Amino acid sequence: MPLTTAPDELRSAICTTPTSFATAPARPVAVADARQVSEAEAAEAVARYRLNGFALVQFTPEECGEDTVEHLAQALELGEPFVPPLYTKAGYASPRVSSISAPEVQEDSRHPHFETTVGQDLHCDGTLQDIGVIKSAVLLCCSQGAEGGESFVFNAHAAFAELLDTDPAAARALTSPGVLVRRATFNGSDEANRGPAFAVIGDRLVCRYCVDATDRWETSAVDDPVAAGRGLEFLRSARQEGSPYSLRFTLAEGQAIVMDNTRISHGRSKYRDGPGRRRRLLRSLHLRHPGGG
Ligand SMILES: [Fe+2]
User: Fold this and answer.
1) What would the pLDDT profile of 184-238 be if each residue is shown by its tens digit?
2) Mean model confidence pLDDT for the chain
3) What contacts 282, CB < 8 A, 6 or more positions away?
4) What is the distance in A from the centroid of ligand 1 to the CA of 127?
5) Distance 45 CA to ligand 1 centre (A)
6) 103 contacts: CB under 8 Å, gap ≥ 6
7) pLDDT in the model for residue 168
8) Domain boundaries, the chain
9) What is this structure's pTM?
10) For the domain 7-102+118-286, what is the CATH superfamily, name and number?
């Protein structure tokens, strides 16, 4: 019999890290010198991350590079960037900070999301890692494409809290081990990770709401498939544009988002590069939250 998490335990875990997009400031935290993020700048970013599940940080576009990501991670006490083992399989090398851009000439071995211009639906980073392992991610926009490439985030934590209030059986069903199957299609791998979409780890609710191309929901594998289906339908509706749980924005050049990979899901719309306008983002993954923890 699959183990699920009781509603009372979920309720108390939700209270540990309440998350709202309503208080997210429109203006990013402005960093004066990327090489030396000040204590006040870092503290403001940490405070926003805790309240909103993410924080936007603005550097001058000229300062955009791998070092900028590493300096920010250091200032926020995120620890060393984590490189998923999948990225270094079969002799491939992968840097600590990944570059996300589409090559001018398409190659067969490209990363399915890093090196294409297609849209990417909501997901959490760390496909093959277990839920809750990758705690945070930094995404820095170095240059925008000619068109598209809008970012969107979904407050899975708060949406799940509402689901728990209105339909506890549906919320509980989404904590079933094996309800979410994520598959990697990179470096010749077809490995999969099966797990719950929501779990209590330590004293926190940890979320992993993913509906991207390689994610699959196996509601038939849980005790109460009907309740799981209701939960997914609720979340599908909660993620729509205009919902208080959904935000869309375009990262400006020199702008970074620090995301809680355990509370919010993220995605991007498709984009098009043009002459002299190639979209390029840098990304690092981390095993800690900003400010420690
Ligand atoms: Fe991602």
Assistant:
1) 877 667 899 999 999 999 999 999 999 999 999 999 989 999 999 999 999 999 9
2) 92
3) 64, 65, 66, 68, 69, 97, 98, 99, 100, 138, 139, 140, 142
4) 9
5) 20
6) 110, 115
7) 98
8) 7-102+118-286
9) 0.94
10) Clavaminate synthase-like (3.60.130.10)
- Cα(44) to ligand 1 centroid in Å equals 24
- Distance of CA 286 from the midpoint of ligand 1 (Å): 13
The per-residue pLDDT for range 107-135, each reduced to its tens digit, is 555 565 666 789 999 999 999 999 999 99
276 Cα to the center of ligand 1, angstroms: 25
What's the 1 CA to ligand 1 centre distance in angstroms?
Answer: 33
If you measure from the C-alpha of residue 119 to the centroid of ligand 1, how many angstroms do you get, rounded to a whole number?
A: 11
Q: Which residues surround ligand 1, an ion (CB under 5 A)?
A: 125
Give residue 292's pLDDT.
79
- Cα of 172 vs centre of ligand 1, distance in Å, is 26
In the reported structure, the alpha carbon of residue 267 is separated from the centroid of ligand 1 by a whole-number distance in angstroms of 6
H runs (alpha helix) in the chain: 7-16, 39-52, 66-75, 156-166, 168-173, 225-238
Dist. CA 268–CA 26, nearest whole Å: 19
Q: pLDDT, tens digit, for every residue of 80-103?
A: 999 988 777 666 778 999 999 988
In the numeric block, which tokens belong to residue 27?
A: 């203006």
Please give the single-letter amino acid code of residue 262.
T
